Amino acid sequence: MKKLFALVIAFATFSCTSNAQKTSFSETALSETLMTTNGGQIAFKDILKNHKGKTTVIEVWASWCGDCVKAMPKVKELQANHPEVAFTFISMDKTADKWLVGIEKHELKGDHYMANDQMKGVFGQAIDLDWIPRYIIIDKTGKIVLYRAIEKDFDLINETLNKLK
């Protein structure tokens, strides 16, 4: 019975921590480079520095992702309702061509970057990426206030952004 209880406790602990909300990015995530729309590379920490002092929404997406495409109208609604917020899109596409076409096709306004090694790569693992679209909100001080939100969490995303005004 003690072993069963210990197993249940261990499973509950693991289940709870896998979806934990973090308040900062790992050094691995910060030092990982992403591709820019002109084919260059930039460290994630430098992307964050570019938005210092602004509330920022990061959307991790891909042009091939059906749930990402379905969520685009909600993202555009968020942008319209929160013009003071910076939006950064990080693609998990396999090729830059498809990524760039996706940006144009969906008329995505904001800063755009692409992970060099898709969802299962270094950056994806460093931000605990297990689903896209994924939304991360960073406050004006650079602290993560919402680490793990998906397309079903737009009410929570909007509520969080309203609190940060």
From TrEMBL:
<keyword id="KW-0201">Cytochrome c-type biogenesis</keyword>
<feature type="signal peptide">
    <location>
        <begin position="1"/>
        <end position="20"/>
    </location>
</feature>
<keyword id="KW-0732">Signal</keyword>
<dbReference type="Pfam" id="PF08534">
    <property type="entry name" value="Redoxin"/>
</dbReference>
<dbReference type="InterPro" id="IPR050553">
    <property type="entry name" value="Thioredoxin_ResA/DsbE_sf"/>
</dbReference>
<keyword id="KW-1015">Disulfide bond</keyword>
<dbReference type="InterPro" id="IPR013766">
    <property type="entry name" value="Thioredoxin_domain"/>
</dbReference>
<feature type="domain" description="Thioredoxin">
    <location>
        <begin position="23"/>
        <end position="165"/>
    </location>
</feature>
<protein>
    <submittedName>
        <fullName>Alkyl hydroperoxide reductase</fullName>
    </submittedName>
</protein>
<keyword id="KW-0676">Redox-active center</keyword>
<dbReference type="InterPro" id="IPR036249">
    <property type="entry name" value="Thioredoxin-like_sf"/>
</dbReference>
<dbReference type="InterPro" id="IPR013740">
    <property type="entry name" value="Redoxin"/>
</dbReference>
